[in-house]
Amino acid sequence: MLELVWLIPALPLAGFLLLVVFGRRLGEPGAGWLATAAMGGSFAATLVVFLGLIDRPGDDRFFTQTLFEWVPSGDLSVDAGFLVDPLSISFALFITGVATLIHLYSIGYMHGDPNFSKFFIYLNLFAFSMLLLVLGDNLLLTFLGWEGVGTCSYLLISFWFTDKNNASAGKKAFVTNRIGDWGFMVAMFLVFVTIGSLSYVDLLGAADGGQIAAVTATGIVLLLLVGAIGKSAQVPLFVWLPDAMAGPTPVSALIHAATMVTAGVYLLVRVNPVIASSFGWTPDVIAWVGVITALVAATIALAQNDIKKVLAYSTVSQLGFMFFAIGSGAYVAAVFHVITHAFFKALLFLGSGSVIHAMHEEQDMRRMGGLRKFLPITSVTFIIGWLAIAGVPPFAGFWSKDEILLYAWNNNVAIWAAGSLAALLTAFYMSRQVFMVFFGESRWHEPIPAEVPAAAAVADDATSEAGGNEDAEVDPETGDAEPADVPDHAEREHALPADFTPHESPWTMTLPLVVLAVPAVIAGGLNLPFTKDLHFFEHFLEPSLFGNEAVLTGGAGTKWFVAGASIVIALVGILAAAAVYLKRRLSPEPFEQKAFAEGWWIDSTFARLVGGPGTAVFNAADWFDRTIIDGTVNGVASGVRAGGTALRVLQTGLARTYALSIVVGAVLIAAWFLTRASL
Amino acid sequence: MVVTGTWYLVLSAMLFTIGGVGLLVRRNPLVMFMCIELMLNAVNLSFVTFARMLGDVDGQAVVFFVLVVAAAEVVVGLAIIVAIMRRRPRATADDLALLKG
Question: Contacts of residue B99 in chain A, CB cutoff 8 Å?
């Protein structure tokens, strides 16, 4: 059954190719159903491969399939092949599962869009690239998928590219990711120079066998970390992810929450033997990057008013949790959190899409409120997602987050404390969002408080920042992609009719919500901490980790203390948010600091750096390119040209002159021979 | 008076010179063409002479090659000259300077 692994990426690829050819003809909703069917088939194939894998004994769960020799180039030989092991198949399972649901959801969400079929072309291409990333059996194939998802992310963020904000958000994501890609590429060079191969089997085998020097291993890990920081939106390269919310909401759910942004986590977990053979401080670097990201993003999320921005920063923060899990040696917990996060964050994003849909493209939470009565399915499922991310037992998020914090405690109490603070903030801002959107009284006819557009304008500074994205969504109802027809913020203040009531979304949108809500509740059962036998996921992943999982030193008391602390933290966060945003006993102002609202000025600092000194450097490079590089090339060309011009006078076009030159030549040669003969 | 090989060589040189000078001073393409033929045959004559003087038939064999090539060249050359004359009657070689640099 494992031989079917090629089907997993092949089906979305087939869907992509079919849609490229027939997409326009299939139109709506045929193209969407075809794409969804391709993803569903891919999910079924993944299930079959998964069953085949668990059918084998634990130490034999490792299977590679080589399709063909992809790059035969001297010493460098790279095969196109797949690697099936517990790690890759765990990722493939949730990727195909969540992607299928999001494809289905998109049929409803993209209803009426003029580029309906194009959207599904991109989605299928994305799914193909993502599966290539996790299933590829060498770094280069993973890199191909890595770039593929980056491209699809760019295409989908700027899907409604007629709006300048969307187009520049896409560019920002792409350019920021290039920095990370540089790290990935140099890491690949280093791997090749060191072991002469790019395949995971060779790399992991060499690292596990201790054949890679600590210095080299550290270099490889740190460079891959640069790649992961870019792709998984860690400090300081996280700035692209909040802007990526300019894309359609299913894209935010699929690419910028559930799958693509976890690629960095996948990569670092994949190379865990290399991390193990690097210097002891390398995991600490990863852990600190993660925990700082978790904290910074959580504070920023406190003060966002755009419903999708809150979720975006929350995603950044949760990715930070995964990174400090890796840094603490909690590989299982990291992957566990990737999976539970995929479920509840996709659920939250799709729920927010349903809310936005119901509110006629309104994304500002201050103009929502009381939606619980109007959107019963959306609100119940969203609340489930909220409880999961806030870390309330027995919802899925609690188990994975608690596991991470437990290992963080085991590793370094400072990281545990910072992570716990981030968890507290998570519970707080998510509760704030739920209370603002679904509880309280309806506020959709109220004007936005005056100071906010100004704040948004500051963040808008220089590049395509916050603020602008409220206007980014094109109304899928009217399907109008003309920028002139997208109402700007001021116009929309009065756009909702007086008798406006939000409406629940069609079944294609609510069904994925309901289906995703189920694992958001129960996915914690994958890896319950109570007894060793309940660590299903840990046992499953064991063969992929080469025994590099950290060992907990504390006893049961530590476990209960950390778990208790997690529960208290979650409840405190929720109750505090309730006091502020539900009961209105406290003013929200101390929580919504200006520094938070503007993302600690990180983004605007980048904009200023790139805009000021950066531009000078770029101009210098441009000058060098134009004057020195182009000057050399053009100089050679014009020299040849001048020489030709000088020589062309010899070509008189008269046959007699040519004949004369031949005769003169002949005479000279004859004279030379004759004089030489006489000597 | 004994006719030696030198006589033939001198005749060959004279024919070659006449052909060469004719090629340089005449402008009628047909005449220039005939001058080239004259030069070729002057060379042929010297080949045969040397073959005879040195007792080696290689020189005579080369003459056949020259004849064959010259025949082929005549076909192409005459066709080109006829084509030019059809388009531009009375054209001289100096008028045909389209490839001037």
Answer: 651, 653
Query: Residue B50 domain-assigned?
Result: yes
Residue among B40, B49, B46 at smallest CA distance from B20: B40
Total structural domains within chain B: 1
- Which pTM does this prediction carry? 0.77
How many Cα atoms within 13 Å fall on the side-chain side of residue B72? 5
| A255-286 pLDDT per residue, tens | 988 899 999 999 999 999 999 999 999 999 99
Pairwise CB contact (< 8 Å): B101 & A651: yes
Among A642, A624, A620, A621, residue whose Cα is nearest residue A632: A624
Domain spans of chain A?
2-483+508-597, 610-678
Complex prediction ipTM: 0.81
Give the Cα separation of A293 and A323 in Å (integer).
9
Residue B23: inside a domain? no
As a whole number of angstroms, the distance between CA B12 and CA A673 comes to: 19
Which of the residues A641, A648, A650, A656 would you substitute to probe the B interface, choosing the one with the greatest number of B C-beta atoms within 10 Å?
A656
**A412 backbone dihedrals φ, ψ, rounded to 5°:** -165, 120
SS3 A64: strand
Query: Is the N-terminal amide bond of A72 cis, ω within 30° of 0?
Result: no
Q: How many CA atoms within 13 Å lie on the side-chain side of A64?
A: 12
Q: How far apart are CA B54 and CA A36, in angstroms?
A: 93
Q: Is there a contact between A197 and A223 (Cβ–Cβ < 8 Å)?
A: no
User: Hey, of B25, B94, B95, B96, which one would you mutate to test binding to chain A, going by the most A CBs within 10 A of its CB?
Assistant: B94
* CA–CA separation, A437 and A13 (whole Å): 38
d(CA A270, CA A528): 23
SS3 A14: helix
CB A470 within 8 A of CB A489: yes
Residues shown for chain B: 101
Q: Which residues of A159-194 are buried (b: 16+ CB within 10 A; e: fewer)?
A: bbbebebbbbbbbbbbebbeebbebbbbbbebbbeb
Neighbours of A589 (CB within 10 A): 9
CATH number of B43's domain: 1.10.287.3510
At a CB cut-off of 8 Å and minimum separation 6, what does A247 contact? A156, A157, A158, A159, A166, A169, A170, A255, A256
Q: Residue B67 is part of which domain span?
A: 28-91
φ, ψ at A459 (rounded to 5°): -65, -25
Place of tokens 């959580």: A298
Nearest of A75, A68, A57, A55 to residue A2 by alpha carbon: A55
Structural domain includes residue B79: yes
Rg (CA), chain B: 17
**Residue A439 and residue A447: Cα distance in Å, rounded?**
18
What's the one-letter identity of residue A500? F
Q: Residue B101: which of A649, A659, A663 has the nearest Cβ? A: A649
Encode pLDDT of A541-584 as tens digits.
888 888 888 888 878 888 889 999 999 999 999 999 988 888 88
- Using an 8 Å CB-CB cutoff, list chain A residues near B23: 656, 659
3-class DSSP state of A131: helix
Q: What is the DSSP letter of B89?
A: T
Q: Are A192 and A199 in contact (CB under 8 A)?
A: no
Could you tell me if residue B13 is inside a domain? no
Pseudo-torsion of CA A439, A442, A446, A449, nearest 10°? 0
| pLDDT tops 50 at residue A457 | no
